[in-house]
From TrEMBL:
InterPro entries per UniProt: DNA_clamp_sf, DNA_polIII_beta, DNA_polIII_beta_N
Cellular component GO terms, alphabetical: cytoplasm; DNA polymerase III complex
Keyword DNA-binding in annotation: yes
Annotated protein name in UniProt: Beta sliding clamp
SUPFAM superfamilies: DNA clamp
Segments forming a coiled coil: none
GO MF assignments: 3'-5' exonuclease activity; DNA binding; DNA-directed DNA polymerase activity
Alphabetized PANTHER family for the sequence: BETA SLIDING CLAMP, DNA POLYMERASE III SUBUNIT BETA
Alphabetically ordered keywords of this record: Cytoplasm, DNA replication, DNA-binding, DNA-directed DNA polymerase, Nucleotidyltransferase, Transferase
Localization (cell): Cytoplasm
GO biological process, one term: DNA strand elongation involved in DNA replication
Main location: cytoplasm
Length: 356
């Protein structure tokens, strides 16, 4: 049937296996599809859960007959885990025999014709190459709303748009926002990604993109990812960004010494800031225990006065994206403070104060 180097098999399973369902009432979705042309030198391994499909193509030696068979993903992982230099697959009735090192594994199979196929309709509305775009996804995805957000389901997605000069990747849960951009000229577009699809695109590291009416396709050498498009809706996220008029800055390490203490001293996770000229008091308390710290302000606006309470976990997620020595926090107006902006290079994070 076919033979393949063990490391190549592991590579294909690591990529395509991300889309296979661990459990499903549709049994074939827990399988991976193996395809190769008779006498060919490549093997295509496909995983799909109906909303996400990943195809990994790796070198292999295909026998005299075409290969098109589905094997359980967990059984294939077991074959790869043996660590053999090469693996030989052969047919035996409705089963497949895998020989890896000193092991011989008999695996039940399903004909490949029964595997779900993705039907992409129409022509792409946008086609572009953007190496490095998927590296931005982890810097914003944490800000998206969780699966329990039902009132505004679009917040469970990431929003990717191009203004012609740069591609912006944005996520928000309504109280926190994170955005990053890649300066690259493309045609203008706007498209939502589910968090799961975006994280898979990032894991695979796709570089070339096609946007269709119902699907998004991403590719790099030897890998193709297809995901369903969520409904094309998102809020005007740019309007949420304040025009900074006031600002203060803190040493990043000093903030990271104090802010994580909310985990022990306040189950609600509230971190309160109150500025007094060049010093800012940070307090965390649940009424019976407390943390009080005074941090030096490295830089401030002439009329700046930082005062407010913030969600500790959200604040830490945003601080985790700032790599500069000092953290600059800016906002629009001291009299009516709204969302506070953190920025580091092309990355921007936004956090609204709590009403307490």
């Amino acid at each position: 049937m076919l033979s393949i180097a063990g490391n190549r098999l592991s590579e294909a399973l690591k990529i395509a296996g991300q889309a296979a369902a661990a459990r499903s009432p549709i049994d074939i979705l827990t399988h991976l599809r193996l395809q190769g042309e008779a006498g060919g030198s490549t093997l295509a391994v496909t995983g799909s859960d109906l909303s996400l499909t990943v195809i990994a193509t790796v070198p292999a030696s295909i026998g005299p007959d075409d290969v098109d068979v589905c094997l359980p993903a967990d059984k294939l992982q077991a074959v790869a885990s043996i660590g053999a230099a090469s693996v030989i697959f052969s047919r035996k009735d409705s089963k497949v025999i895998a020989r890896a090192g000193s092991c011989r594994l008999t695996i039940p199979s399903i004909p490949g014709a029964g595997y779900p196929k993705v039907k992409i309709e129409g022509t792409p509305t946008a086609t572009f190459s953007a190496p490095g775009l998927t590296a931005l996804i982890p810097t914003v995805a944490f800000a998206a709303a969780g699966p329990k957000e039902h009132a505004r389901p679009y917040l469970r997605n990431l929003w990717v748009e191009s203004d012609g000069a740069a591609i912006h990747v944005t996520a928000s849960n309504g109280a926190m926002l994170a955005s990053n951009c890649l300066p690259i000229a493309t045609e203008e577009f706007g498209v939502p990604f589910s968090v799961e699809a975006a994280e898979l695109f990032a894991s695979v590291g796709v570089e070339d993109f096609q946007i269709f009416e119902r699907h998004i396709v991403g590719q790099r050498d030897g890998v193709k990812v297809i995901c369903n498009r969520p409904p094309a809706k998102y809020f005007e996220w740019r309007r949420a960004l304040p025009v900074p008029k006031q600002h203060v800055s803190f040493n990043r390490e000093a903030l990271l010494q104090v802010c994580p203490l909310h985990r022990l001293f306040d189950i609600k996770g509230v971190v309160r800031f109150e500025q007094d000229y060049d010093v800012c008091s940070i307090s965390i308390t649940d009424g019976t225990q407390a943390v009080d710290a005074e941090l030096e302000i490295k830089e401030r606006g002439d009329e700046s006065h930082l005062e407010g309470s913030f969600d500790g976990p959200s604040l830490l997620r945003l601080l985790g994206q700032v790599k500069a020595e000092n953290v600059l926090i800016s906002w629009a107006d001291s009299d009516t403070p709204g969302a506070h902006l953190l920025q580091d290079g092309s990355w921007r994070g936004l956090l609204a104060p709590l009403r307490v």
